[in-house]
Structures are given as structure tokens and as C-alpha cells.
Amino acid sequence: MAQDLKDTFWKRLDNVTAGLLSTDSERPVPMAPQADRGENAIWFITAAGSAADRASQSGGEARFDVADPKAGLYAVIEGKLDHGSGDKLDDVWNAFAAAWLKDGRDDDSVRLVKMTPHKAEVWATENSASFLWEVAKSNLTDATPEGGEHGRLAF
């Protein structure tokens, strides 16, 4: 089951548009993840001096929280932050990042941060119509609704 849930996690994380990234004792901030299962990494584009940038300079720990009903993924992901390279930045650059940085990809403040997950608690839910059916069925039968898969992952 754990391998199936890990596969589901990476597939669905690829469809997540935003989550909350928190580093050290800093407040959580919205960030757009770029999932990269092949490198066991979640990439974030941020600005110089941000909490994520500062934590990545020291190999700090971080937490990324996801609650995305469209992707069917709810997760608490913990891992280590590091700097990313310019080549990888070219791979993950997108219009969302460009909207936040004045000079786009060439902005001097652009920083790429790599999160290497250590562990995660994951809830992979069914689509909303299936979930509504489960709730309705539960109310008629007193059974607990089936909400999808849940488990803890180690990376």
C-alpha cells in the first residue's frame, strides 16, 4: 500500500497549484510546488531574502502543507531545503513565477529552492462526486464514508 500511496502522492502533487511552505520558526507562505519524483524533490521559485531562500542557504528544515481538493491531495510534507541550480530553474520556470518577479527569469532576485522530502502524511481523496456519494451513503447506513487513501510515507 505504501508504494501505491507514494505513486499517488507524486502524481497528484504534480497537479497542485499552491500550498503553504514554512521554514524554521517563520510563518507559512503560499508557494507553487514543482514536483520532481525522479530527483525526489519539490522545487520552489522564490525571491532572494525570503524565508525559503534563507533556510536553503543553511540546509534548513521546512514543512509544506497541501490542501488541494481539485488534485485530491491533502498532505503535510517535511524535508530539507537546499539551493537549486540555474539549469533546473530553466526547467521549472513558469508564468506564475514570472508574475511575482519584476524582470521575470532574468530578475537578480530569482532563487530556486529544492525541498528533499524526508516524510509525509498523505490523504489522497476521491473526486468530489464520489465523496458526496460516500457521505450520503454514510448517512443512510451509519457506515463511515470512504474518503480515499491515508498513510505516512518515508522518502
From TrEMBL:
SUPFAM superfamilies the record matches: FMN-binding split barrel (SSF50475)
Residue stretches making up the General stress protein FMN-binding split barrel domain: 6-145
InterPro entries, sorted: Split_barrel_FMN-bd, Stress-Dev_Protein, YdaG_split_barrel_FMN-bd
PANTHER family linked: PROTEIN BLI-3 (PTHR34818)
Protein name (Swiss-Prot/TrEMBL): General stress protein
One Pfam assignment: Pyrid_ox_like
Gene3D superfamilies registered for this protein in UniProt: Electron Transport, Fmn-binding Protein, Chain A (2.30.110.10)
Native species: Roseivivax isoporae LMG 25204
